[in-house]
Write a structure and sequence with these properties.
single chain, 3 domains, 3 helices, elongated
């Protein structure tokens, strides 16, 4: 419980994380040992950062002991590091140093600035003589960098702006630069053996949920289908460190973090089965104001790897398809105010009929687990049983019993056309009357129902004075006409709205 409490504290401030190595790391001067536990505990947030926790045995001597570990990430946040004893023994860290530098040629050249090293060239002497290796001594006056700065090398008393060959470095190069390094000076009044807890935050670990929905072959004009839903969590590791034995939890929710979000990585693989499977290994629970998903298994997470785990599966989920024609979408909603211009709300380009898919995330629909934000992909089986992709969209975090609604494309055989038929504004009488006609055509071989959506945004006080059919008021400035169309049928919706102010 202490460890979890620490994680919560840092989730809204500086989240604690911990990472340890597989092999003991010996301090370079006094031989102190920082031996690593063989398992890491990761809590990955869907904002490109993670909390990593592990147990670190420390062997301290009286006075000051230097301990070092190279099993940290390239994207560690140094000021988030917590080194503590869960049993309450105080650990006094006098000094902490973090070096994220991973060795490369330019970094080593910089380490040897002002010194003379050897440069190697391979000379091709032809087929008869073969190749010959020639070494040249050169003093590194200025090292190149990864931003394109040219090197300056002195060879035989002359300066040149290029390396005279492949640099050959002495074997004494600092081996700790091969990996990111975390180093402490720890003060202790006496010799102490501790199982310390190491926590820190790192960037470069992210996760995203993906939902693949397979709809059966379309039969007749029914707007409802029973679909199979499979949810994946996709974990991506760009932290610069491998986690060979990681116990992973995933935190879903909008946790405050003073950094920009990083693009998530997503990939689909495998074919969906229509048969219901055994209960998923992933469980979830409410945690503070968020949701925590536990994989309940040890995962080998390599650096640069994208790993996927199935976290939910449901069969026969009722999904309803709706057709919506919003002829003024993108024009209305400019802000509060009175709009008297005749052309306000008149689209200059044709609008298409959108395909909306929706379902309720309830136990009655064989769902009910809080769904983390992610991408929904829709597939439908054709007459031959093959699965074809039919659209995708994204959802926000959706609680239990919440409604999932997405638009997955535009209908090919259902069209709409909207035009203003009358407009009259009486500024003295403080009234305005406006009329519209919306024509909807169904070229499909099956009957459909189209929702014609109209926005009444010229002013907050309005009244429908004429109408061709019944409508529903969906909010204070939106109405919706349901239009039932037979195969090959066309219908016109008309109405007049009266504004007063």
């Amino acid at each position: 419980m202490q460890l979890r409490a620490a994680a919560v504290f840092f989730a809204v401030g500086s989240l604690p994380m911990s990472l340890t190595g597989q092999q003991p790391v010996v301090g370079p001067e006094d031989g102190s040992v920082l031996a690593a536990h063989d398992q890491d505990f990761l809590t990955i947030y869907n904002q490109d950062f993670a909390v990593v926790r592990s147990t670190v045995p420390l062997v301290l001597k009286p006075g000051t002991t230097e301990v070092t570990t190279t099993k940290v990430t390239r994207q560690l946040e140094p000021d988030s590091v917590v080194l503590r004893d869960p049993k309450g023994v105080a650990i006094q860290v006098v000094e902490q140093n973090y070096d994220a530098a991973v060795i490369d040629q330019n970094l080593l050249l910089e380490k040897f600035e002002g010194q003379t090293i050897e440069f190697q060239n391979v000379l091709d002497q032809g087929q008869q003589m073969g190749q010959r290796i020639v070494t040249t001594a050169g003093k590194i006056v200025r090292a190149p960098d990864n931003n394109g700065r040219q090197p300056i090398v002195e060879v035989d008393g002359k300066l040149q702006f290029q390396l005279p060959g492949t640099p050959i470095f002495p074997a004494k190069a600092d081996s700790l630069l091969l990996k990111p390094t975390l180093r402490w000076q720890i003060a202790s009044p006496r010799a102490e053996n501790l199982n310390a807890e190491l926590d820190f935050i790192t960037r470069g670990l992210s996760w995203q949920s993906t939902y693949n929905i397979v709809l059966p072959e379309q039969v007749g004009a029914s707007a409802m289908s029973l679909a199979d839903v499979v949810g994946w969590v996709t974990i991506h590791n760009e932290s610069g460190t491998e986690f060979p034995k990681a116990n992973i939890k995933l935190m879903a929710g909008d946790v405050a973090k003073i950094e920009a979000n990083f693009a998530m990585v997503d990939k689909f693989r495998g074919r969906l089965a229509a048969e219901p499977a055994s209960p998923p290994p992933v469980t979830q629970k409410a945690f503070d104001d968020f949701h925590l998903y536990d994989l309940h298994r040890t995962v080998d997470l390599r650096d640069g790897e994208t790993k996927q785990v199935e976290f939910m599966r449901a069969a026969r989920v009722p999904i309803t398809r709706k057709y919506e024609y919003d002829g003024a979408q993108g024009v209305i909603g400019l802000g509060e105010g009175l709009y008297l211009e005749r052309t306000f709300g008149i689209s200059t380009s044709p609008r298409k009929v959108a395909i909306a898919q929706e379902f309720k995330n309830s136990e009655a629909n064989h769902l009910g687990m809080p769904l983390p934000a992610g991408r929904l992909r829709f597939y439908r089986q054709d007459t031959g049983g093959q699965v074809e992709f039919t659209g995708e969209s994204t959802i926000d975090h959706t609680p239990k019993d919440g409604l999932v609604r997405v638009v997955t494309g535009n209908a090919f055989d259902i069209t709409g056309d909207r035009k203003q038929t009358d407009f009259h504004a009486d500024t003295k009488g403080r009234t305005l009357d406006e009329s519209f006609e919306i024509k909807v055509t169904n070229a499909k071989e099956q009957p459909v129902t189209v929702s014609v959506i109209e926005h009444l945004s010229r002013w907050s006080s309005w009244k429908i004075t004429k109408k061709s059919g019944e409508f529903a008021k969906t909010d204070s400035r939106t109405i919706e006409f349901p239009v039932e169309l037979g195969a090959g049928e066309e219908k016109t919706v008309s109405y007049t709205v009266h504004y007063s102010w």
